[in-house]
Amino acid sequence: MDRMSLLQDLTSNMVSAMKSRDKETLAVVRMLKAAVQNAQIEAGHDLTPDEEVAVMSREYKQRKESLAEFEKADRQDLVDQTKHELTVVEKYLPKQLSVDDVNKIVQETIAAVGASSMKDFGKVMGAVMPKVKGQADGKVVNQAVKAVLSNK
User: Fold this and answer.
1) What domains can you pick out in the chain, each with its CATH number?
2) Residues 22-54: pLDDT tens digits?
3) SS in 3 state form for 53-94?
């Protein structure tokens, strides 16, 4: 196995954060490591790279949702903390696709499955999501599919 597992990566980053006395990063990395370990226990086996991405995506999404709530509540202290957490989580996610890239994949997929109206929304989403797994937010994909299909 030549690639470093996510757990090994998290552990080495935890040690680095401890040595540099970066308490905020250390706390986030510990949470991420716990999330991966819990997922591993639930699965009953070492996680595949796809499963690791799914765990990190879930952690990222939770923080994105929290950020929106904290902004609504005008809690700048929590907004700043959550933004820092998001930057740490992003390091463990695959590079995110741009909106243009997502639109291109959506259009190619619509052509490939022969979708012609909003009735085909589910079919298109089912075909697009595996292609962008971990690289794009479901909301972005959803909006792109709706935009293209509503113009058909």
Assistant:
1) 6-90 (1.10.1510.10), 99-150 (1.10.10.410)
2) 899 999 999 999 999 999 899 888 888 888 888
3) HHHHHHHHHHHHHHHHHHHHCCCHHHHHHHHHHHHHHHCCCC
